[in-house]
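Think of the structure tokens as a kind of shorthand, similar to the way a musician reads notation: each symbol stands for something richer, in this case the local conformation of the backbone. In the example below we present two proteins back to back. Begin with the first one, reading the sequence and then the tokens, and try to describe in your own words what changes along the chain.
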Amino acid sequence: MASAPAQQPTLTVEQTRVVLSEVIQAFSVPENAARMEEARESACNDMGKMLQLVLPVATQIQQEVIKAYGFNNEGEGVLKFARLVKMYETQDPEIAAMSSKLKALLLPPLSTPPIGGTIPAS
């Protein structure tokens, strides 16, 4: 029989809340907040640069927290944790709210033109 692939950590809803809360708190640590701010400033709200500069920093910050819960210390661990959170979002309003808060920390506010024809005519 072939050996099974490394098992993904399974967390309960309660455990996921705890880990998600710790991940959000990690972004408030002064050192991490400074790293994120520096990356954001370098990206200048350009989505391509955000992916190149901000996303790796955010991934590192998350990895530092989730590795204590059995997720691997690679980008894959963050993706598996994100999938777990996504799965619980529909079942738990607290996880859904924390997930939205985390996304707001990671993504810049999008500036979209107003809807409804309020663009001035030339």
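Once you have a description of the first chain, move to the second and do the same.
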Amino acid sequence: MAFLMKSMLSNQVKNLGLGGGGEESKEESGPSDPAAAAGMTREEYEEYQKQIVEEKMERDAAFAQKKAERACLRVHLREKYRLPKVR
């Protein structure tokens, strides 16, 4: 992950160059491979994509669990204080 951040930051700094950007724009339009565009090898790019998918799944699972906990707490408080369902 640190490698990805370092490469992304270095690419952004390179793109900030003052004038003389003709060569850089040719380089950016050249590679059609997303791994080459991100400055990574194919294997690094695939590993990065796997990490993104895994992190998204973990976030979704944590969100679903918190949502269920909130719903359970709401039901418990409604029953305890005999509150009507508001919708």
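Compare your description with these statements about the second chain. Residues 11 and 39 are 8 Å apart (CA to CA).
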